[in-house]
Design a protein that fits this description.
Blueprint: H1 2-14, E1 21-23, H2 27-31, H3 39-43, H4 45-55, H5 59-82, E2 85-87, H6 98-106, H7 116-127, H8 135-158, H9 164-181
Parallel strand pairs: 1-2
Helix pairs in contact: 1-5, 4-7, 5-7, 5-9, 7-8, 7-9
Length: 199
């Protein structure tokens, strides 16, 4: 899925369907400092996603998780295709982190709204089912995942990959995707006629 997402994402960045509209930074965006080294936290999303998949307690849980990710991606991709938006991104300062500089060379400032980094991070926290055992341990683990997701969204602002409105829209997209699809049962319901006859 990551390969498909990356291919379509970068294809649309370098061969845009329509001219992007540049979003205006808000007062919050102007206050947030530019920290290129936060790129490592930003990229840690690609560790969070498979981790949440491994934490699923059933195969159906894994399928449901990636189904929700795919739904959010399709929604975001439709916006990127028909209503593309960009955001201003400053030039890396002299001596900036090389990983950040490399990403900036291949990742243009398009596909800004909504932030799929924020959407996928929120889905990761919402989709975690919990583990058997101590409720306190589950609570601490969920808190840890939440802090991690929040750090990823903050890193999106610190690296100037996204504006505050992009992150908020992405988080809402993630919540909406999870809420819409979490109760969807894609398996065939059991047929009562197939059960044993008690009479």
């Amino acid at each position: 899925m990551i390969v498909v997402f990356s291919t379509l994402y970068f294809l649309l960045q370098h061969v845009p369907f329509r001219e992007a509209v540049e979003r205006t930074p808000s007062a919050i965006d102007r206050v947030v400092p530019f920290v290129p080294s936060a790129i490592y936290v930003y990229l840690s999303l690609w560790a969070l996603m498979p981790l949440v998949s491994l934490l699923q307690d059933t195969r159906d849980g894994v399928f449901s998780y990636y189904k929700t990710i795919a739904f959010a991606f399709v929604c975001g991709f439709a916006i990127f295709l028909f209503w593309p938006m960009s955001c201003f991104r400053p030039e890396p300062p002299p001596g900036a982190d090389p990983v950040y500089c490399f990403l900036m060379r291949i990742d243009r400032n398009l596909n800004a709204w909504p932030s799929l980094h924020a959407a996928f991070a929120v889905i990761g926290v919402a989709a975690w089912p919990g583990m058997e055992g101590s409720a306190r341990f589950n609570g601490w683990l969920r808190l840890g995942l939440g802090v991690w997701a929040a750090a990823i969204m903050l890193a999106a602002l610190l690296t100037k990959q996204h504006l505050c409105g992009d992150v908020i829209a992405g988080a809402l997209l993630g919540l909406a995707s999870h809420a819409l699809l979490r109760k969807t049962n894609w398996r065939q319901p059991p047929n009562p006629r197939m059960r044993g006859n008690d009479g």
